[in-house]
């Protein structure tokens, strides 16, 4: 007996093909900034390790404050309020690493009570970088900053600065708030994102943070 002959299979129609393609595509759509952020999270990869090594070699030869044309981490800069328009300035600042450096005392107390080692300042390195950059450029106001690199001796931060007297800044409703006099010298007053984090206004809420707000000075420095 002959085996039954199977009927030829029909080719899938266009709606069926589109349904299969839609089943393959799953997950949210990612933009360019997402992949830029993911690259900065994995600095131990071969490509990023070589790039960062070469950058640090070049940065060590430069000065403490270097004005750059474009931000290195565009995703972080845009998230903190940067815009590619006149009035915005990016400055790469270099700050030493480590705790507070104190002079070695030669007389008057035993070595255990000299108080030289294991002394840490209340301000973090990023706040110090913002304050020094604001002092270096007195006609600009510090908006925010972010980390871009470090080695055994220094840390580098890119500080976003704004010209409060520029007409483009004054006419932009999203950034014109910084032109007000109550935001003057905001880096030294702890009003930047790094400053608020160091003052305990970001992660401390509720019990244990009663005297953090509005400020420690308002509570006679009784808070943490």
Task: For the record, give the distance between the C-alpha atoms at the N and C termini, rounded to a whole number.
Answer: 94 Å
| Helical fraction | 25-40%
Overall number of strands:
4
Q: How much strand content do the residues show?
A: 5-15%
With strands numbered from the N-terminus, the spatial order across the biggest sheet is: 1-2-4-3
Query: Averaged pLDDT, please?
Result: 87
> What is the 3D form?
extended
Structural class: alpha+beta
Task: Give me the strand/helix succession.
Answer: HHHEHEHEEHH
Query: DSSP helix count?
Result: 7
Poorly predicted runs: none
Radius of gyration: 27 Å
Characterize the main sheet: 4 strands, antiparallel
Structure description:
The structure is a single chain. With 224 residues, the protein is an alpha+beta fold. The chain contains seven helices and four strands. The chain has helices spanning 14-24, 32-41, 46-60, 74-79, 125-136, 167-171, 193-198; strands at 65-68, 88-96, 141-150, 154-162. A four-stranded antiparallel beta sheet has the order 1-2-4-3, with helices on one face. A hairpin with a 3-residue loop joins strand 3 (141-150) and strand 4. The radius of gyration is 27 Å and the shape is extended. The termini are far apart. The mean pLDDT is 87.
Please give the structural blueprint.
Blueprint: H1 14-24, H2 32-41, H3 46-60, E1 65-68, H4 74-79, E2 88-96, H5 125-136, E3 141-150, E4 154-162, H6 167-171, H7 193-198
Antiparallel strand pairs: 1-2, 2-4, 3-4
């Amino acid at each position: 007996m002959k085996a039954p002959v199977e009927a030829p299979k029909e080719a899938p129609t266009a709606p069926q093909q589109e349904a299969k393609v839609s089943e393959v595509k799953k997950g949210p759509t990612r933009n360019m900034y997402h992949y830029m952020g993911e690259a900065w999270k994995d600095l131990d990869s071969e490509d990023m390790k070589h790039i960062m090594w070469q950058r640090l070699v070049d940065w060590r030869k430069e000065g403490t404050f270097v004005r750059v044309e474009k931000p290195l981490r565009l995703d972080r800069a845009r998230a903190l309020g940067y815009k590619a328009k006149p009035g915005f300035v990016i400055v790469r600042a270099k700050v030493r690493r480590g705790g507070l450096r104190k002079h070695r005392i030669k007389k008057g107390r035993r070595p255990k009570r000299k108080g030289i080692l294991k002394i840490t300042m209340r301000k973090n390195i990023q706040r110090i970088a913002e304050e020094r950059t604001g002092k270096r450029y007195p006609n600009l106001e510090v908006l925010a900053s972010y980390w871009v690199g470090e080695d055994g001796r220094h840390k580098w931060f890119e500080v976003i600065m704004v010209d409060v007297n520029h007409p483009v800044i004054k006419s932009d409703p999203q950034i014109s708030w910084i032109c007000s006099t109550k935001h003057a010298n905001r880096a030294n007053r702890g009003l930047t994102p790094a400053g608020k984090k160091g003052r305990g206004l970001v992660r401390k809420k509720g019990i244990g943070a009663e005297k953090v707000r509005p400020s420690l000075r308002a509570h006679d420095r009784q808070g943490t």
